[in-house]
Amino acid sequence: LPIIRGVFNFIDSLVVGTKCLMYSATFFEEEEDYRKRKELQGEEKKKEEAKKEKEDKVLMTLTVCFSVVFSVALFMVLPYLLASLLHRIGATETLVTIAEAAVRILLFLLYMFLISKMEDIQRVFMYHGAEHKCINCVEHGLPLTVENVMKSSRFHKRCGTSFLFFVIIVSIIFFIGFFAVVPVKTMWLRVVIRILLVPAIAGVSYEFIRLAGNSDNLAVAFLSKPGLALQKLTTKEPTPDMTEVAIAAVEAVFDWKEYLRENFPDTVIPEEP
């Protein structure tokens, strides 16, 4: 169902993303711990693996919960608390909501700018760019080769960065509309309602991202521009070897050759070596 599927996709993305990060982290475990686990045999090895799997599940749950709480506190609660100070000078709720959105955008931009300066995150953003290039390459009817991917754009309308931008825009509409119909005077209740509206906001934003990715409408293209501009922060130009990794990742989950045969029958697909 529309909107509802967006909520579940949002939750699924959080869980899958966390699992991938934790899986990557296992490659950096202490050499001594790794050696000890390799030396285990039989039942002892099974017990150790079961114990580690249980620990990983607990850690993943805590990580997802912390991520959600941190994100809601930083990008939902804090902007409202700061903007609500305008009530002291007699500002209307509509003005407070607009100010809240402005603070949220500034916090989001500052957060992205600061993490983009971290060396490890810069590499993540380069892989992010490689992922976008792969998708753009295939969606423009080109075979998935390093040369074609490197020439493709690193910006994509269906990016999560664009999704976050639409979340901010949709939240303005939701909050102004809701509190115009249901006046709420208590500050803590306003905060709770904002948090409860997050799933609906995420669902609507997801539907717009789907529309933007499959539409050439001028209005949709115009509304997509701010999200694409934000991707200048969250994507970087990848190296050829990063592009090879991105191609391998795409091929593991998507048959791009079949996609080209169905949608671009005139495209010449290179033979397997």
From TrEMBL:
The keyword Signal does not apply. Keywords: Membrane, Transmembrane, Transmembrane helix. The chain crosses the membrane at residues 58-82, 94-114, 160-181, 187-209. Pfam families: DUF1385. This is DUF1385 domain-containing protein.
